[in-house]
């Protein structure tokens, strides 16, 4: 089968343009389909759009596979999509060629890579009884997952199909379909509940993000001493922890790890530090220093309530995001404390770390309070100094609460004149309430960080259904009238206030219900979908999925871009970053009494930025053979396809990489791209295919061979790069 790709590029201005063509080939393995005949159907990638346009996308990720009809015979086959023609879409309105939006499918979990933390992958299965398999597993599992689905624990005397049992270091699994190693099933033994609190940082300075999770109910030397788990970033990243740190004191109900947060690099030695807070009433926060070997097993600094201030509640809130309020290159630490009289402590970093005595102790209010939420929120006004926000919770009945925003400067935060933002929940909460604060990142790409506020207490159609809000940052150089106009003329704007006084975006609970508590956990997660805008995640403290919202020029949409359907509740959420070194941006989600998970898009979206253009089309197979000579894995395929240039010229057309994916579960089967192990494809032609000019209308044929053993239908992602020299003002990119 052969497909033809039409390429049309819109040009504005006169500059060299690099075209990055990404082509998708979908076939079915020989066990299911050996050659194409007239009228037969194959699976192709139909949906190339997003929720803003139905045309082409900057990504090959997140596609919905649909059927297409083969209209001609085996040779020179054409493929026609069985839906309306994909409309032409302009990909740019300026010479920067930035595409707004990204591709996603809310309900398709196959779009995401998922790593279960606190889990071991079980292999080495042997037959114990007919249909019952055994493997070594030294730790009693809490739960067993098979291909991402939890299965029931059974009885040793009556083990039923798809059940497990553990005894004396041996895991037994009943699976009538055969040995899991041979059937290709993924079996995970979840041995740690680690979702209570989660964070990430680069604690060993290798430029990969490391993950920290916590089980505050772990019984060590006494009940509920708690422990934390560290998974260091690696191209072979594993869900099982590389390091376990126990409660330094070992006291009953210490709940070590009640909050964990990266402190950033407080001594500027190239390694991030870790803050670990304790449960209510312990009133102690530990600082673990990073090093080339990672985190030390014992804390380097112990922070306690400052003299003259209430001890109870110290550390019950810490900033989950790090910041540098005085811009000296050393990360600072922010801790909330007290009860009745609330305060927050700011510790400035230095070459020796932080002083045990805080550099700043400030009262956000004189009213009687329960606790104070605290967070660095990024550089809201773009002056080069990170800003912070605090939100005290009243002990009394109230329908609103005040958020105090303190702006950084070369002298540190300006304590005297915080900006005050009032949040309302629409009813009188009998015991007062507080919000969840975090740095959203720059969700609208205007160069200023934005603030994310979760408000789980909001009434809507249901009691306590929750809401989240995004406040845009802005320059302090903008006139007051401009600020007022920017924010819709709502309310007064005072000098020095550079955060919107009203939320720019209000996000309602997408799945409202009683006590859903949407917004109980929030965080900015970086550019999750690689479209040039930073994104956010919003969790909950009830039985509700977490939701990811992609940034865009107008900010985040009010409807979720992705729903993480296989999480029972998103008690804790956090940015994770690149843990594998392959460019994927992960986020962490932790369940209150369960597991923690890492999620990333299977293939990072490629945006049209910096003069690069990426798109998807359909091609097919020219020849398929089951000749296994030279291919001990069993299947040899030779595939050809063409790239046709239309209204564009190019030089040095080059095949960059090939990735083979399963159409059953989206898993990568083979990969010639960076980070892959071994040469799994026989593709001697990878490299330059054509030197010199290729004119509009010309075709270039690509051919590759694979060696693969699989019974699943599979497809290709193929990256092709060309250098454009056309100056056609009217040309555009359009679909296949």
Describe it.
- The protein is mainly β and 736 residues long.
- It has 4 domains: 113-190, no CATH class; 194-365, Methylamine Dehydrogenase, Chain H, CATH 2.130.10.130; 372-480 and 495-563, Methylamine Dehydrogenase, Chain H; 607-726, Sandwich (Immunoglobulin-like), CATH 2.60.40.290.
- The protein has an 8-stranded mixed sheet with strand order 7-14-10-11-12-13-9-8, with no helix packed on it. Strands 2, 42, 43, 46, 47, 49 and 51 form a 7-stranded mixed sheet that branches. Strands 1, 44, 45, 48 and 50 form a 5-stranded mixed sheet that branches.
- 50% of the residues are buried.
Spell out the blueprint of helices and strands:
Elements: E1 4-7, E2 17-27, E3 41-45, E4 65-70, E5 79-81, E6 112-117, E7 119-121, E8 126-129, E9 132-136, E10 143-146, E11 149-153, E12 163-167, E13 170-174, H1 180-183, E14 187-190, E15 197-201, E16 210-215, E17 227-231, E18 243-246, E19 259-264, E20 273-277, E21 285-288, E22 301-303, E23 317-318, E24 333-337, E25 343-347, E26 360-362, E27 369-378, E28 387-394, E29 398-406, E30 419-429, E31 436-441, E32 450-455, E33 467-471, H2 480-486, E34 505-508, E35 522-526, E36 535-538, E37 547-549, E38 562-563, E39 572-577, E40 586-590, E41 596-601, E42 612-613, E43 618-619, E44 623-625, E45 635-645, E46 650-662, E47 668-671, E48 681-682, E49 687-694, E50 699-708, E51 714-724
